[in-house]
Amino acid sequence: xxxxxxxxxxxxxxxxxxxxxxxxxxxxxxxxxxxxxxxxxxxxxxxxxxxxxxxxxxxxxxxxxxxxxxxxxxxxxxxxxxxxxxxxxxxxxxxxxxxxxxxxxxxxxxxxxxxxxxxxxxxxxxxxxxxxxxxxxxxxxxxxxxxxxxxxxxxxxxxxxxxxxxxxxxxxxxxxxxxxxxxxxxxxxxxxxxxxxxxxxxxxxxxxxxxxxxxxxxxxxxxxxxxxxxxxxxxxxxxxxxxxxxxxxxxxxxxxxxxxxxxxxxxxxxxxxxxxxxxxxxxxxxxxxxxxxxxxxxxxxxxxxxxxxxxxxxxxxxxxxxxxxxxxxxxxxxxxxxxxxxxxxxxxxxxxxxxxxxxxxxxxxxxxxxxxxxxxxxxxxxxxxxxxxxxxxxxxxxxxxxxxxxxxxxxxxxxxxxxxxxxxxxxxxxxxxxxxxxxxxxxxxxxxxxxxxxxxxxxxxxxxxxxxxxxxxxxxxxxxxxxxxxxxxxxxxxxxxxxxxxxxxxxxxxxxxxxx
Length: 516
Known about the structure:
Elements: H1 3-45, H2 49-77, H3 79-98, H4 103-131, H5 137-165, H6 170-173, H7 175-189, H8 203-222, H9 231-251, H10 267-297, H11 302-308, H12 310-330, H13 332-350, H14 359-386, H15 393-430, H16 433-444, H17 448-458, H18 463-499
Helix pairs in contact: 1-4, 1-5, 1-7, 2-3, 2-4, 2-8, 2-15, 3-4, 3-7, 4-15, 5-11, 5-12, 5-14, 8-9, 8-15, 10-14, 10-15, 10-18, 12-13, 12-14, 13-14, 13-18, 15-16, 15-18, 17-18
């Protein structure tokens, strides 16, 4: 290869990485930016409480259910082609969301937006795998993960600014210029790649796994409104688990399965998938209550809370590329172990937060937690993708991202339930019987100021005392949730030690190749 051709190839690689990062930034931005706009959407569109939740849940549900399919379709029909389809869908439905005039319209368009995200998310990683030589893949994934952190960081700040100065529709309009730029770069720089061994699509397997993921995610989302032992929760969960079981049985008998079960015979891949699931489980559930703590207990507005969580996301941005550079030297397993340990220590530190704790204590906890995430997730991604045939990168990435999404849904449902149960127990023991049941929903949601307003109208002399009891009860649940998260993350350390014993997780230069 001539020097000119080599330079051109190198330029194309970095342009491809830029395009994938830009598109991922859009997806991650949308995960957080919409949450900030919900109060304004509530005033303008007047949705019910259930509709308000589904503005978020519709996107999450479709995203989780279709993410495995998105990766597989890219392997079968061409990753660049499908990525462009996902990018156009996401951008077009963002415009539709911005133009919505009712809550039902917005929910429907958010679900369709999730279709585009489910295609783009796994393919952004698989395109990187097909573009970079194997020994340089961890560095590229580290940069990719750092940009993911940037999207999460900017979301609350940008969402708060746009909502306040432009309106809630602006949080969707912002996707249009980002999508157009990403589209141009993808068309110019990305070379198409696919899995040449796939000659047909396993339709039955596709339907089984999609419906299975849909059932599990829907059941977990349902725990926000229904008890765990209710038919609304257990029905979809059990149906989803049965469908996943049938899917595994079916795949074992196919010559061209949707997901090659041989992936899971690799200890590197299987261990990485378990780690990604546990991180999603422990982090998502705990960070959900941390967000409530910052806004409802400490009283920061959305922008103020976003600024104060910057140590976490800035640590991800800075440390993820560093983890990518260290990966070839020390291996992904070592980085995952250190990252999970740091995350566990940070979660234990959050256990000691109180309503009046100085930010000088909170900020370092956030930074250590971000550093732990940055060392863990890119390393898990690199180890998983390095353990499989690069030709199967799309479906492999889909499995990895589906595991993380389901883990996150599990964390929000289970850790959220733990927090609510502990809060309810403390509230029931301490609150006056006359107000305990009526105010319970406000206490569970850490809506302390709203509780004060209710009491100010009916029993102003009790407002301060009962608000203090409510705060203490919610903090008991908060402490339980971060301890539960720390335990789950600690379990991840054990999984890394056992699962990677005797496995060399450093990338092998001999496996390097250009785009497939």
